[in-house]
């Protein structure tokens, strides 16, 4: 039996090999996230081609999410929101969007959304390019929390980006903000993804911590329609194992829920 909630895995140096990707798909990776803050267009094109080849080989559709960078600046080994940015969509985003839409990505994730107007502008850019690709709003700014209701209504799905969110609000508030976002998305009938550091210890270890297992299970119990792996599959030592264990946790959580969590939009 496969989980009804989707598992999203970020594709990177640790997982772009075709054999590893095949194993991830066979262990119930449902969605591939391509993070355009990293890697080259050539690498992303190769990843898309590999995923599409494996779809045919395995006989199962794999959703591809193009995650746009948004206005961010380098911070040591990571990125953070550029508070000086005037626009949420950058020139890089528009160039990446050209590539992604031509390549046939299934969803576009918008970083650092501040209001419904940001979603509307991106949708206009997508329509301008002759597409109707759905948009995932990433919630990671205080402005997004202030304007959450309108953002949920304007988007096709919502992603709780807990990594950048910790820079916007006090750390101890994140669990409660997560629960509120999930509740409001469910009430609005919009799919919601919980992301960031879900099985982070598996970047270096073959098993997660008990706290991480509880975190993933709670995300499903709260109503998440999908849970996402980032570093764990992008650059970790155990990408296949991370997907496999994520599926086990989700299945167990759904068993206790009676299997009610379904991310229909990404089916």
Give an account of the 3D structure.
This protein is an alpha/beta fold. The chain has one domain (6-266): Phosphoenolpyruvate-binding domains (TIM Barrel). It is built from 11 helices and 10 strands. The protein has helices spanning 18-26, 41-58, 91-103, 116-128, 142-146, 148-154, 162-165, 174-188, 210-222, 231-234, 239-257, and strands at 6-10, 31-35, 63-67, 72-75, 78-81, 107-110, 135-139, 157-161, 192-195, 226-229. Helix 2 (41-58) links the parallel strand 2 (31-35) and strand 3 (63-67). The longest helix has 19 residues, at 239-257.
CATH top level label:
Alpha Beta
Any guess at the CATH architecture? Answer: Alpha-Beta Barrel
Fill in the CATH topology.
TIM Barrel
Rg over CA atoms: 17 Å
Query: Outline, from the CA principal axes?
Result: globular
Summed up, the domain count is 1
Describe the largest sheet. Answer: 8 strands, parallel, barrel
User: How far from one another are the termini?
Assistant: 16 Å
How much beta, percentage-wise?
15-25%
Into which percent range does the helicity of residues fall? Answer: 40-55%
Residue-averaged pLDDT: 94
Going across the major beta sheet, what is the strand order? Answer: 1-2-3-6-7-8-9-10
Strand/helix succession: EHEHEEEHEHEHHEHHEHEHH
Number of strands: 10
- Structural class of the helix and strand makeup? alpha/beta
Q: Stretches where pLDDT falls below 50 for ≥5 residues?
A: 259-267
Structure annotation, total helices: 11
- What do we call the CATH homologous superfamily? Phosphoenolpyruvate-binding domains
């Amino acid at each position: 039996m496969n989980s009804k909630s989707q598992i999203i895995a970020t594709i990177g140096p640790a997982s772009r090999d075709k054999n590893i990707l095949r194993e991830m798909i066979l262990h119930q990776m449902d969605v591939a996230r391509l993070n355009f803050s990293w890697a080259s267009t050539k690498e992303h094109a190769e990843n898309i081609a590999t995923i599409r080849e494996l779809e045919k080989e395995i006989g199962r559709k794999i959703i591809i999410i193009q995650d746009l960078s948004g206005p961010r600046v380098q911070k040591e080994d990571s990125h953070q929101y550029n508070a000086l940015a005037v626009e949420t969509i950058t020139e890089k985003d528009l160039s990446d969007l050209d590539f992604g839409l031509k390549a046939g990505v299934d969803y576009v994730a918008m970083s650092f959304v501040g209001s419904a107007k940001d979603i509307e502008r991106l949708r206009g850019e997508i329509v301008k390019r002759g597409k109707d690709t759905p948009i995932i709003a990433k919630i990671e700014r205080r402005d997004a929390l202030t304007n959450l209701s309108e953002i949920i209504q304007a988007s096709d799905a919502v992603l709780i980006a807990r990594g950048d969110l910790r820079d916007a609000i006090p750390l101890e508030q994140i669990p409660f903000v997560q629960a509120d976002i999930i509740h409001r998305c469910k009430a609005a009938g919009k799919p919601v993804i919980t992301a960031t550091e879900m099985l982070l210890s598996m970047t270096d270890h073959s098993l997660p911590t008990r706290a991480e297992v509880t975190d993933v299970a709670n995300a499903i119990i709260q109503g998440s329609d999908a849970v996402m792996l980032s570093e764990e599959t992008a650059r970790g030592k155990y990408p296949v194992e991370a997907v496999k264990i994520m599926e086990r946790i989700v299945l167990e959580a759904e068993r206790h829920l009676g299997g009610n969590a379904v991310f229909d939009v990404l089916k």
